[in-house]
Design brief:
The protein has 167 residues and is α+β, with helices and mostly antiparallel strands. 26% of the residues lie in helices and 34% in strands. A hairpin with a 5-residue loop joins β1 and β2. The N and C termini lie far apart (43 Å).
Length: 167
């Protein structure tokens, strides 16, 4: 069964219209997606390769973990749920910023979170084919070489800019 999402406007306000995520993507309707950049205690970033079975971007690498915001969920609730579903962990990610993301299959509002996650994660094999941890310089080196999802490039660039502005 396809996920149900709420349509939002160009200012990320909920419109009160519920559609399937597939329909939102097909029609180019704005909806919400929540992602989390996962760091460990040493600051390394969790990178993973998506399962080949996934309908969206099978086999591509990602810098963040996430998915659609379900009807009635906040960005934070969706990010926490996705971390549990995909990595088998229970942490509270912190919302850093949102932006209107036009890369990927269709435009959507992207809520970008950050969380410190334990070394021991148990990825769902239906979602994650491989995972590892990279330092920021290592990640910058592989971004142009490995096949990453379209969202990964822009999101990681904005994430680094956000962190630089905050320090």
């Amino acid at each position: 069964m396809d996920e149900l999402v709420e349509r939002v406007d160009d200012r990320d306000r909920v419109l009160g219209v519920v559609v399937s995520r597939r329909q939102a993507i097909r029609e180019g309707r704005l909806h919400r997606v929540a992602v989390t950049v996962c760091r460990d205690e040493r600051g390394r970033i969790l990178v993973h390769r998506r399962s080949e079975q996934l309908s969206r971007f099978p086999g591509l690498y990602e810098v963040m973990v996430g998915g659609a915001v379900d009807v009635g969920e906040s960005y934070e609730q969706a990010a926490a749920r996705e971390l549990t579903e995909e990595l088998g962990i229970h942490v509270l990610p912190r919302l850093l910023f949102t932006f209107l993301n036009r890369s990927g299959l269709s435009p959507h509002w992207l809520g970008v979170h950050e969380a410190v996650v334990p070394d021991a994660v148990v990825p769902d094999p239906d979602e994650v084919a491989w995972h590892g941890r990279l330092t920021e310089p290592e990640l910058r080196a592989v971004l142009p070489e490995w096949p990453f999802t379209p969202d990964s490039h822009e999101t990681f660039s904005r994430y680094l800019a956000f962190r630089t502005a905050r320090s």
